[in-house]
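I hope you will forgive my troubling you with a question about protein structure. I should value your view on which stretches of the chain appear to form regular backbone elements. Here, with my thanks, is the record as I have it:
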Amino acid sequence: MNARRLRELAVVFLKLGTIGFGGPAAHVALMEDEVVRRRGWITRDAFLDLVGATNLIPGPNSTELAIHLGRLRAGMPGLLLAGAAFILPAFAIVCGVAWVYVRAGTLPAVITVFRGVTPVMLAIVVQALVKLARTAVRTRLLAAAAILAFTAALARPLDELAILFAAGIGAGLIAWLRARTTAVNGGAALIAPGFLAQAGTALMPAFVSPASLFLVFLKPGALLFGSGYVLLAFLRADLVQRLGWLTDAQLLDAIVVGQITPGPVFTTATFIGYLLGGLTGAVAATAGIFLPAFVFVAISAPVLPMLRRSRLAGAMLDGVNVASLALMAAVTVTLARTTLVSPGAVIIGVASLVLLLRFSISPTLLIAAAAALAWLWY
């Protein structure tokens, strides 16, 4: 039974890692379609709890969601396999792009083909938001929390983590629940990797080696909340300003590759590792930035059932869940502004949304069709 489940996990997450254009919000949408609607591995409520949980720990949210789903499906072997399978296709694609970049000194022009898939990914995200919101927004209180979180995310008076905590604490207080919860002291375990990463980079030698690349990327993997643009700030401080290993132009190219190629945005680390140390450097940088995600999920996953059983903690988790959806919605608005910039993109996006909502067309087929059309156009 476990061997069969492991094979299923490998197939599902290798596929999602290959077709997962559009960043974390799109990845969440694809996973919801695959594991909730099509395969029924978990309920939509349980899926929402995992989405909320990944937003409360550092690291790449969609990769952590894949790791959580693997653990639920097949225990610790599933945890390791699902995360690795989701990362591997992006690692291979980014290494190929980096190989061309090292020899040509610029990004390959064909990478612009990936942009043709973005309107479809936007429609997939909207479809997932509609379905998840029907499950998550069960009361007027949660609806109000979602609206406030969405407004705050667009106005940006608070960062993402502050919005999530405010929604969770607010939902718990307003619900007037008096149940007591069991405190779980996992704080030291969660802080330790980040502390060690910070200390390691402080003592970093000026020359590039696989070990130094591992430590440089362990730091954002262990400490980073937020989007790929926050990753840009972390990496610029270490790699451009302090160590001088990259130029600003090279760093921006790396961020573009992470954003446009399928799979986790954190494979920006793979691109930089290849630039600085070839394939060995790519492996070291990728391992450094993704390792904390596996550790954090393994530590935090056993706590989730305890939180859901507690009335007070459950209400707070509901608040975090709707705030997570609000953040996804805000990202979708931003993505729409940069994606729907031509009549063709609008037509593709609207048509994809209609096909998804009205006819339940497979997202995989839509992505493949969009990629083929973009390639022909290019």
